[in-house]
Amino acid sequence: MEVGTLDFEQITFKLLIGFAGLWTMTRLLGKKEISQLTPFDFISSLMLSELVGNTVYQEDVKFSHLIYALLLWTVLSFVFEKITQYFKRTRGFLDGKASILIRHGEVDLKELRKNSLDFDQLRMLLRQHDVFFMREVAYAIFEANGTLSIMKRSEYEPVTRSDLNLPDKEAYFSYQLVEDGKPDEESLKLLGKDESWLMAELRKCGHEKLSEVAYAEWTQDKGMYVLEHRSKSFKLPEDEVD
């Protein structure tokens, strides 16, 4: 069966409606990374993909049906979010609860089995936090979204400036100024600088052309950090060499 012009128009309008509806839902319900998704968020994303995907290519589904479905799902999702925000007792049932897998340095086998985890999986989650020895962990909490939060034993924690009685050091934000030979106009504008200043800074690092630079960032305390294209020899700035 050939697809007529009307069919293409219907598909186009349905896709536009679906795109606008999903974008609106995202703005209303907030942004979350994939690793932060709760079970409901995961179900909602699957439901929406099915909802939009199944209606786009069905001729008997009208625009009003798609709009109504998106509006109804938006209302349900919004109400669900507000329930979990204002009624704390429902959070554990609706979003799930965090489980303490390691407490005082000891693995809770009951909680491990309750969350369908084995030691290999636990060690893999620990390695994602650069922890390769279980003896280093004081507490490990398996969050409702499937991520692992870790508190190390005091003897394995990194030393801080306050531990050494050193004065506080101000932290500075880094700005990406060049990517693949092209200047980042927005970052330059935030700094109140122009391309002439950028080229002057790059020349201090031994680069006469933007095309030589694969990546460059600038911080107030360290100055310019430059990575050359692979076609040129790689050389770290002097302050980066031990």
Structure report:
It is a single chain. It contains eight helices and eight strands; from the N terminus they run ααααββααββββααββ. The chain is of the alpha+beta class and 242 residues long. It has three domains: 5-91; 99-156, bsu07140 like domains (CRO Repressor), CATH 3.30.240; 175-240, CRO Repressor, CATH 3.30.240. The radius of gyration is 26 Å and the shape is flat. The termini are far apart. The model is unreliable at 31-36 and 232-242 (pLDDT under 50).
Q: Largest beta sheet: what is the strand line-up?
A: 2-1-3-4
H/E element string? Answer: HHHHEEHHEEEEHHEE
- Structural class by SSE content: alpha+beta
Low-confidence parts, pLDDT < 50 over ≥5 residues? 31-36, 232-242
The rough form would be described as: flat
Beta-strand content = 15-25%
Overall mean pLDDT score?
77
Cα-atom Rg, whole angstroms? Answer: 26 Å
* First-to-last CA distance: 70 Å
Overall tally of structural domains: 3
Count of DSSP H/I helices: 8
DSSP strand count: 8
Percent of residues in helices comes to 40-55%
Summarize the structure.
The protein is α+β, with helices and mostly antiparallel strands.
Strand and helix layout:
Layout: H1 5-29, H2 39-56, H3 63-86, H4 91-95, E1 99-103, E2 106-107, H5 109-114, H6 119-127, E3 137-142, E4 148-152, E5 175-179, E6 182-183, H7 185-191, H8 195-204, E7 213-219, E8 223-228
Antiparallel strand pairs: 1-2, 1-3, 3-4, 5-6, 5-7, 7-8
